[in-house]
Structure formats: structure tokens, C-alpha cells
């Protein structure tokens, strides 16, 4: 998979813009963070992944090249161990809506949310 022709970080909007020869994409920081390819998020095996919640406010501090094959994204919550290969970035672009809806369903199923300031309220009575 080839690298994007242009990569632009908009810190204020918390988005990463990727321009390819055939199209361009806008990837929100929250989406990139919850789908980080790091071992912390994906785990070390097929079923070891962790559902990341409470990242609605996360931003990106910086993006740097990782060799000639990937990007390393430094998030403002301190997470920086994910190496986003060109192929994985394009996968995130091409399947963004599907992956996002899956993520939202997983959050709901586990009683978790996107906002770290919200807590589950249980009524007693």
C-alpha cells in the first residue's frame, strides 16, 4: 500500500487529513485512538483486544513518520505506542463508517461511553 500524497494534522478540529491519488479522508482523533494498532489496544493475540472508552475529547499532539512505511501518532492523553502502517491507515479510511458503528455498539453493549465525564447512573428503588 502506498503512502498518502499529503498528510495534514488539524489540532483545533482534532482531525488527521489524508489525501490519496484517488480520494481524501478525514479521520477524527477519537477514531484513530480507539483503533490504535498498539498492543495496549489490540492485544497480543486475536482475542486480547481492549475496548477503549472515554476518548471523545482526545486530540493529537503530533504525527511523525515511522520509517517509510507508517506514521506514529502522539495523542494528548499520552498514548503514542501505535504504529499506523500505510495499509492500516487506508483500511481505517475505507471502513470508517463500519468500524465506527461497530465501536458504538460495543460501547453500548458494555455499558461504556465516549465521554469520560459521564458515569453510569443506577436507580435504586
Automatic annotation (TrEMBL):
Protein's UniProt keywords contain Isomerase: yes
Superkingdom of origin: Bacteria
GO molecular function: isomerase activity; metal ion binding
Gene3D superfamilies xref list: 3.30.2020.30
Domain Gamma-butyrobetaine hydroxylase-like N-terminal, first and last residues per copy: 7-90
Pfam families: GBBH-like_N (PF06155)
Keywords: Iron, Isomerase, Metal-binding
Matches recorded under InterPro entries: GBBH-like_N, GBBH-like_N_sf
PANTHER family according to UniProt: OS02G0197800 PROTEIN
Record protein name field: 1-(5-phosphoribosyl)-5-((5-phosphoribosylamino)methylideneamino)imidazole-4-carboxamide isomerase
Taxon lineage: Bacteria, Pseudomonadati, Pseudomonadota, Gammaproteobacteria, Cellvibrionales
Amino acid at each position: 500500500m502506498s503512502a498518502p500524497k499529503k498528510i495534514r494534522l488539524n489540532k483545533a478540529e482534532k482531525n488527521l487529513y489524508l489525501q490519496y491519488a484517488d480520494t481524501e479522508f478525514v479521520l477524527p482523533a477519537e477514531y484513530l485512538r480507539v483503533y490504535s494498532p498498539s498492543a495496549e489496544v489490540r492485544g497480543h493475540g486475536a482475542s486480547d483486544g481492549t475496548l477503549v472508552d472515554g476518548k471523545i475529547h482526545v486530540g493529537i499532539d503530533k504525527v511523525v513518520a515511522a520509517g517509510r512505511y507508517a506514521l506514529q501518532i502522539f495523542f494528548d492523553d499520552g498514548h503514542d505506542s501505535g504504529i499506523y502502517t500505510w495499509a492500516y491507515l487506508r483500511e481505517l479510511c475505507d471502513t470508517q463508517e463500519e468500524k465506527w458503528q461497530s465501536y458504538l455498539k460495543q460501547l453500548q453493549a458494555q455499558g461504556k461511553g465516549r465521554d469520560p465525564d459521564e458515569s453510569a447512573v443506577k436507580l435504586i428503588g
